[in-house]
Design goal:
Number of strands: 16
Largest sheet: 8 strands, mixed
Mean pLDDT: 97
Number of domains: 3
Shape: globular
Low-confidence stretches: none
Bound molecules: flavin-adenine dinucleotide
CATH architecture of the largest domain: 3-Layer(bba) Sandwich
Number of helices: 9
C-alpha cells in the first residue's frame, strides 16, 4: 500500500507525484491510458494565461509562482532525463484593443513586465504579420515549453525517482467509508492508499460524482493546427481574438485553438481546420508555403471561472483534488502541485489556499 495514490497521469498528476515523492512519500500514479496523452499533450505550452489581466488574482498568483520556477524545473528535468522540454522565453505579443489601461493596471499590481507597442514596432518585431494592428501589448518575459516533451521528461523523471506507475488502469470507482477513502476500484481489484489525490483532468467531475461534494469540471474541446515551418519565420508568440500562434525552436508553428462545448467528443472537424488555416494564413501569408503536418483536439478541464480545485475534500479527510485548470494547466501546474503538497503535508502554503477549495465561490 502506497502513502499516496494519484489518479490521472497528465501534467498535473505527474507534477503532483514529483512534488510528493521529493517530499519523501511513496507514490503510485494510476493512469487510464498512456501518461499525458490527453489535454497535457494537446495543449500549446504558453506559460501564461491568455490576456492575463482578465483572470482573477487567484489564477495570477499561481501563474506568477510557476513562472518564477519553470526555467529551473526544465533544467532539472533535462539534466535528470536527457529530454529537453524546450523552455523558450520568446515573449507574447497580445492584440487587445481597448484593454491597454486595464492591462497596465494589472501589470503594476502584479509586477509583470508589459509594454504597449505601436504598428511600426510590431512590424519590426514580426515582419511576416500582414497589416499589423495600431497597437498591441508586449510581454517580453513570457516563455513557452513544448508540452509533449515536458510530459515525456516528467514521465521519465517519475520512473527514475521510483514513482510506481500503473498505466492502462482506469480507476472505476472511489471506495469510501465513514468519511475516509479506502482506495480506488480497478479491473484488477482495489488499490489501497493512505491518501488519494484526484488529478483526472476533464474526467474528474464524473469520477467525483459519487462523493458528497463533487467537482464542477466540464470538458471544453480545443482544436489545434501544426504547420511544418522553418526556423526564424515567426519570432514571438502572438495572440489576437483568442487565436494564437506559437513558433517552436525547430521552425514548427502551432496555430490554435477553438473553444467548443461538445462534451467528451475529442474528434477533429474539417470546419475548424479550414477556419483555423484560413485565419492563420490571413494573418501570416507566409504560412501558405508550409504544409499542415498535424491537426488534433484535446479536452480542457474547465472549472468555473478557470479557478482550479486544489484542496482537501471537505467531507473525506484523506482525499485531495488537483484538477480543473482549464486553459492554464501547463503554466499553473508547478504551483498547483506545490500547493497540493503543502496542504497534504501540513506545510505553510505558498499562496492563500481559500480560493481553490471545493466550496469556494468561483464567479
Ligand atoms: C488545445 C489546447 C491548448 C492549450 N494550451 C495551453 C497553453 O498554452 N498553456 C497552458 O498552460 N495550458 C494549455 N492548455 C490547457 C492544459 O493543457 C490543461 O489545463 C492541462 O493539460 C490539464 O492537465 P491535467 O493533467 O489536469 O489533465 P489531462 O492532461 O487531461 O490528464 C488527465 C489524465 O487523467 C487520466 N484519467 C482520466 N480519468 C481517469 C480514470 N478514471 N482513471 C485513471 N486515469 C484517468 C486521463 O487519461 C489523462 O491522462 C491547452 C489545452 C488545449 C486542449
Amino acid at each position: 500500500m502506497s502513502d499516496v495514490l494519484i489518479v490521472g497521469g497528465g501534467v498535473i498528476g505527474m507534477l503532483t507525484a514529483r512534488e510528493l515523492h521529493m517530499a519523501g512519500a511513496e507514490v503510485t500514479l494510476l493512469e487510464r491510458g498512456e501518461l499525458a496523452r490527453e489535454s497535457s499533450w494537446a495543449g500549446g505550452g504558453i506559460l501564461s494565461p491568455l490576456y492575463p489581466w482578465r483572470y482573477p488574482d487567484s489564477v495570477t498568483r499561481l501563474a506568477s509562482w510557476s513562472q518564477q520556477t519553470y526555467a529551473e524545473l526544465c533544467v532539472d528535468l533535462y539534466e535528470n532525463t536527457g529530454i529537453d522540454p524546450e523552455y523558450l522565453p520568446n515573449g507574447l505579443l497580445i492584440e487587445a484593443p481597448g484593454e491597454r489601461s486595464r492591462a497596465l493596471h494589472w501589470s503594476a499590481m502584479h509586477r509583470h513586465m508589459l509594454l504597449p507597442v505601436n504598428t511600426d514596432r510590431i512590424a519590426e518585431m514580426e515582419p511576416e504579420r500582414k497589416r499589423p494592428p495600431e497597437e498591441a501589448i508586449w510581454m517580453p518575459g513570457i516563455a513557452q515549453v513544448r508540452n509533449p516533451r515536458l510530459a515525456r521528461a516528467l514521465a521519465q523523471d517519475a520512473v527514475q525517482r521510483g514513482v510506481h506507475i500503473r498505466t492502462q488502469t482506469p480507476a472505476l470507482n472511489l471506495e469510501t467509508r465513514n468519511n475516509r477513502i479506502l482506495g480506488v476500484t480497478t479491473a484488477a481489484g482495489r488499490l489501497s492508499a493512505t491518501t488519494v489525490v484526484l488529478c483526472a483532468g476533464a474526467w474528474t467531475g464524473e469520477l467525483s460524482q459519487i462523493l458528497p461534494t463533487s467537482a464542477d469540471i466540464r470538458p471544453v474541446r480545443g482544436q489545434m493546427l501544426l504547420f511544418k515551418g522553418k526556423p526564424d519565420t515567426i519570432h514571438h508568440m502572438m495572440l489576437e481574438e483568442n487565436r494564437y500562434i506559437i513558433p517552436r525552436k525547430d521552425g514548427r508553428i502551432l496555430f490554435g485553438s477553438t473553444l467548443e462545448e461538445v462534451g467528451f467528443d475529442k474528434s477533429t472537424t474539417s470546419t475548424a481546420r479550414t477556419a483555423l488555416e484560413q485565419l492563420a494564413i490571413r494573418r501570416f501569408p507566409v504560412l501558405k508555403g508550409f504544409s499542415v503536418e498535424q491537426h488534433w483536439a484535446g479536452l480542457r478541464p474547465a472549472a468555473p471561472a478557470g479557478i482550479p480545485y486544489i484542496a482537501r475534500h471537505p467531507q473525506i479527510d484523506n482525499l485531495f483534488i488537483n484538477a480543473g485548470h482549464y486553459r492554464n494547466g501547463v503554466v499553473l501546474g508547478p504551483a498547483s502541485a506545490r500547493l497540493l503538497g503543502d496542504l497534504l503535508l501540513d506545510r505553510k502554503p505558498i499562496v492563500d489556499p481559500a480560493p481553490y477549495t471545493m466550496d469556494a465561490v468561483r464567479g
